[in-house]
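Morning F.,

Quick status update on the modeling queue. The single chain you submitted on Monday has been processed. Sequence for confirmation:
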Amino acid sequence: MTETNKRIRPRTELDAIVASRIKALREEAGISEYKFPQIVLGNKPTAARTKQLESGDHRPEESVLQRIANYFGKSVLYFYGAKINDSGDVEYEDGHEMPINERLRHTRLARGMSRQEVIAAAELNRSHLHSLENGVMQPWTKASILLSLALGIPMKYFPLEHNPDSFPIKLMRYRLSRKMTPAELAKRLEVGLSYVYGMERGALLPKGEVVKRLFGLGFTEDDIFGPLDMEAFLLMRTGMRIRTLRIRKGITSKELAAAVGVSQQYISAIEVGSDQASIKIIARAARMLMVPTGFLYNENKDNLQTHKRKRERLYVQNSNQRIAD
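Structure tokens below.
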């Protein structure tokens, strides 16, 4: 099963599993319902308390579940049908998945962290964490990233507006992991504060010098623009290929024009398809873009575009001639 089609286990079903595992451990140890609270929890002996714990109607408090786990030498995760896998991630039995609120609680327990420690690390208040763990509210983007950093939960489990591997999420994660404010990041990138907000919201992609500064912070082309879609790229004409790679590498049209030895207007004309580049120009552009010349040149597409433009010019000339006549 993939992460997207795993069955989400409802809370009532999870509570029933917790209750059944408490009962199974008690019966295996030969402890009566009456004695269980006294022996395991250090409370007064009473069968009513045991029946309540094993009913599945109410989930035991964390402290109670921890005492039971300690007595029987189990991890608290055992009661939820979970374990820590080799990657250090919480994994559930039978290929099930849990809502993010349950995963937050289980991961916190697995890491041995108190609520107060998570609150401090994720910059939340107590009521927020309580609401998140009880499923009353969903974590917003910033809280999701901070909780991911604090608990080591992969971003794929959080309900995000953007893809977890998208540039807005990676940029915000970079900033928050270094405890930087948006203003501090703006200063590093030499842009305005609104530019940073725009990138983190996914409203704009960086260009030119900003891309180069992001490279300096450790971002890659794929981090910023996503992997290059080769199928779509190979269908592009030469001008569009040049533009695509130029933007991905943070090179301005002015810089490319200087490197190729032509005007900026000529580069723009090539990119929009109103003019065609010679092989010599393409080869120089390829060197600047650090790709083989053949990677830029689409002979069939470019010839087709050239013939189309010639037909359009001829049509306009003929139309003008008829009007003049």
